[in-house]
Structure formats: structure tokens, C-alpha cells
Amino acid sequence: DTEVTQTPKHLVMGMTNKKSLKCEQHMGHRAMYWYKQKAKKPPELMFVYSYEKLSINESVPSRFSPECPNSSLLNLHLHALQPEDSALYLCASSQPGGNEQYFGPGTRLTVT
Amino acid sequence: SQQGEEDPQALSIQEGENATMNCSYKTSINNLQWYRQNSGRGLVHLILIRSNEREKHSGRLRVTLDTSKKSSSLLITASRAADTASYFCATETGGGNKLTFGTGTQLKVEL
Asked: Cβ distance B87 to B47 under 8 Å?
């Protein structure tokens, strides 16, 4: 199984809502990632988990809160977002050590 | 922050022609990777080339790496309409699984 799944596919939320994005992989990868991508731009790294521990936080605002409950799951909790946070949120996984990453299809988030 | 600049930004070719995309980066790397993205979907890994390698092939793809010039190129031979996508280079600098993506090239292959 070489698939990374993400739910939901689309999410519309108001600025006062709390929601969560979910990501799952069953490839035995021990590194998982969250990226944010705006239209016609490259993905921007947000967070990296390595062996279920947060190893990189790219100075992401605290309204984004990542969680890695186990080696297969990655969540991104969203609270009090701004309209400029509207974007495609991509999850990826890999074996640690700078190896190729496997991406999910993304969650398209719209903040109203 | 962005590590790589790609050119051209956009490329339109006829089916059967070759497509070449270039990537330049700024700092020393452990490896450089190329990804494809179809129309706002997830990225697909194409090829990884390590800093001590100069050329790598995978099917219709050929990647070169020149660490002295801090540049890489991706050649797609005999292009097909299904190759229409955005192509990104990404550099790994040994900073703990961190990939930094280039600006991307939008390739359109017309029938």
C-alpha cells in the first residue's frame, strides 16, 4: 500500500470554527509532514514529525496545531483561522533521512 | 524560504517533443528531487539524485545534477498529453527531513 489518505477533501470553515485535518499512511514511514500550498505556488513546509516527535516547526502560527497520535496518523487542528489561511493542505510521509516523500491528495481549505 | 528557482515558468510543446526544465539552488545539498503535480492535487515523486551523482534515468526521464553550478535539469523525452502538469524540484540539505521546493515549471503538452 503506497497511498497517503487525507480527509476531508474539501473544508469550508468560519473564522471562529475549530476543525481538524487528518492524514493516514500504512507504508511504515516514520516521518510525516504538513505542507501548505497556495495557488500557482510551490508547497511550503509547515511541520515535520520524525518517530512521532515534532522535529521541525517552520514558525507556523499557533492557530495551527499538529498532532501525531501514532506512527500512521497525523492531524492538523485548526482554530481561529484567517481568510489568508485558505489553501491546499498537503500531508506527506517518508522514511527519515531525506528520502522521497509520498503525498496525499490534499485538503482544500476555504476560510470565510 | 525558497531554495530553488526553476525555468522556464511555463512551457508549451507538442506531443512527441522533448521537454527540458531547469532548477537552480543556493546552498549545498544532500540530494535533489523532482516531483510532478497534476492540477492542484498531491505531488508524485519522480526521481531522486544524490549530491555525488551526475546523471540519473528513469523511463522517459533524465535528470542531471551539477553541484559546482548548483543546478539540475529534468528532461522528459517523447512527451505525451498525460505529462501535462506542474514540475517542481526540491532540495534536501541534511537539516532533518526538510525539503525546500523550487518555484515550479508548468508544462503543457498539446496533441
From this structure: no
Q: Are B108 and B84 in contact (CB under 8 A)?
A: yes
Q: Radius of gyration (Cα) for chain B, nearest Å?
A: 13
Whole-number Å distance between alpha carbons of A21 and B102:
26
Measured between CB atoms, which of B40, B45, B101 is closest to A42? Answer: B101
Answer whether B102 sits within 8 Å of A42, measured CB to CB.
yes
- Beta bridge partners, B34, equal B47, B89
Categorize the per-residue pLDDT at B108 as very low, low, confident or very high, splitting at 50, 70 and 90. very high
Task: Show the cell assigned to B64.
Answer: 542531471
| Local confidence band at B2 (pLDDT 50, 70, 90 cut-offs) | low
Q: How far is A76 from chain B (nearest CA, A)?
A: 17
Q: What pLDDT is attached to residue B95?
A: 65
**Does residue B26 sit in helix, strand or coil?**
coil
**3-state secondary structure (DSSP) of residue B82:** helix
Q: Is A54 on the interface with B (CB under 8 A)?
A: no
Handedness of CA B77, B80, B83, B84 (dihedral sign): positive
Kindly give, in sequence order, each residue whose CB lies less than 8 Å from that of residue B106, ignoring residues fewer than 6 positions away. B9, B10, B11, B85, B86
- Mutate one of B23, B48, B97, B99 to test the A interface: name it (highest A CB count within 10 A): B97
Whether the pLDDT of residue B19 is over 60: the answer is yes
The DSSP-derived string for A37-82 is E-TTS--EEEEEEETTEEEEE-S--TTEEEEEEETTEEEEEEES--
